[in-house]
Design brief:
The complex is a heterodimer of chains A (507) and B (209). Chain A has 507 residues and is α/β, with parallel strands linked by helices. Helix content of chain A is 27%, strand content 23%. Chain A folds into two domains: 253 residues, FAD/NAD(P)-binding domain (3-Layer(bba) Sandwich); 169 residues, 2-Layer Sandwich (Cholesterol Oxidase, domain 2), CATH 3.30.410. The chains are: A alpha/beta (507), B mainly alpha (209).
Chain lengths: 507, 209
Amino acid sequence: MIYTSTNIKRDMVLKADLCVIGSGAGGSPVAWTAAKQGKRVVVLEAGHFWQPKDFTQLEHEMFPRLYHDSGGRATKDKAVHIHQGKGVGGSTLHNINLCGRVPKKVEAYWREEHTLTGLSEKTLKSTYQEIEKHIRVSRLTESQLNGNNLVFKRGVDALGYKGGYLQHNRHGCAQSGFCELGCPFDAKQNALRSFIAPAVESGAMVLADTWATRLVYQGPKVVGVQATVREPVTGKSLHQVTIHADVFCVSASATGSAALLLRSDIPDPYRLVGSRLFIHPAVAVAGIFRETLNSWSGIPQSYECTEFMDFSHGAAHRVWLLPAFAHPVGASSILSGFGPEHAKYMKDYAHMASFGAVVHDETPGSVRPKGEFGVDIRYWPDVADRKQMVLGLREASRIMLAAGAKKALIPFAKTMELTSIKEIDKRLSALEINKFDLNITAVHPMGTVWMGDEPARSCVSAYGKYHHMDNLFVSDTSLFPSSLGAPPQLTTYTLGLHIGRHIMSML
Amino acid sequence: MKEIPNKPKSQKKNQTPQTFWSRRRFIQASAVGGLAITALKVTGYQYKDLFSTLHHLSATEGAILFSVVEAMLPDNANKTPKVIQRHVKAIDQYLFGIPKEDIRQIHLLLYGLEHATVSMGFSIFRFSSLSVQKRRQFLSWWQTSSIGLLRLGLESLKSMVFMAYYRTADAFRSIGYPGPIAPGFTGPEASRKRYSRLLAPPEKEPGWS
């Protein structure tokens, strides 16, 4: 069953075969694999158990429910916003359903640097296939392009850039456009629907509103995890829960997992945990068209441009371009200014398009625990990654104008309006991005507890097993030895299934 | 030179308003009145009474935020005190999900903004005492300042104000946005039933059956 703070009325201790910390794309396949084999599985989830009936499609209600810090999480200096999900199902409750495998060059880099014994190419490929079938991955078609995506494709085609339809894991989609606020139609084949629900139906126990705060270990063995039950709206601490288990799997995201391990003082002789945070930092360009687009409606991201995406390490072009529109609260925060100046842009909201430029980054940030529940994230893109952002702004603007926009808007402190393609290189080629110049957002924190064969150069094995503990595993995006360069959920589910199977060999 | 005699005391009792309000008296009264108004603007807060029941912000902070909201909203937005009060309360409610450290920074931001108009030499009056136009001017200065922290402060204020405003039906109408596609929809029946079965009844404690 799924228990929430309402059910946990006192401090308690529970025993299980496996305790999974986090119910998102990494932890849910692990829990599912063990539960359907009859093991006693407890899943701890910091967020609440939200069901499709709770998804109101209103930003001011859903941001606090589905996002850490109500969507306001940021780096320590507040220069980069980092959106991370909470809730039973983790970030898969609010993601846009994009599915993509690890690019070949990135996988090759991982193997070259870290070998990854136990995760052969054949194993990875076959596990991807299993997951793709399980979560019903399919490629979108032209009929599924909304207004924003249509003009994006028009611009990409006009410039002769490389592009293509994206793959998603949605089934029975009503094309409402409210993916980021949770799907009231339960069309996302997400962690909750595809793994947690079946795991619970097989006997797993989920404790929602329950924040793991510390792993307790004796020698090389983790013997328990301490957690605090918190009231979902106010965050008030209510009770303490301790789980004893034979095996523990930490799946609390690249920020949460690293913070938990560090807060617990888990042995880390080479001081690696929490370093090498990558995030796919993104910037956006808006555009105003004569035609009505109603970009908030329909599938948010159906088409991509890969013209500037080279996955070689250190490549000159590492930018992924795709549509990226927001509902009114999100859109208004990104556009520059306030008062009448801002209102003149918002009045064109129905004619607005917005494209994002996501960088396959190489800047290594870091994560540390902050207090009992928080994370301290330090990340500022280095010079090379900032140059990629400028490239992204240039090309997103170019696509916007090539698609027929009256003007492209770059939301600096004072909006930069571009009305012709000729202006783009003139005004943007020597641009430098400094902190707080414009909105930089990331939704894919990765790295921090990465996999590899050598304990001196990695934190966990390719089976997710923590090098310095006997019964501790990690299964989430923190496994990635570098930026992935693709939407992470598919790879995270896949590694989760792989890790779950290995854990079963220990139980 | 002809001497101008002093008015005998007996004649003062018979003064009329026209004779009372000499130029000197008028100037004196204006100066006192001006000082009184300045004192009020320096020490008092309009609309503070509207915010005695906030959870995270003091009544004074509520009043300061009121003046920020009023300045940042579009000209065609409903800006009656009651409506702006609702926006401020919505912001206060939103702060439940924000870490305590960030809320402390919001306190500093609001007080900092309020007094920055004086300390930065923009005006002799505090921010909330300025006209909407002057407030916008000051905030614009923050928006394009070379000091990153001021730009950050402006963006933080903006995100709170627009969270409050662009959640409303009025704002939706002004930008042609229809709002939720399926208000009140409780999900497909099969899904509803499935998830309901998974949720433990309130009286059940976690444990293995």
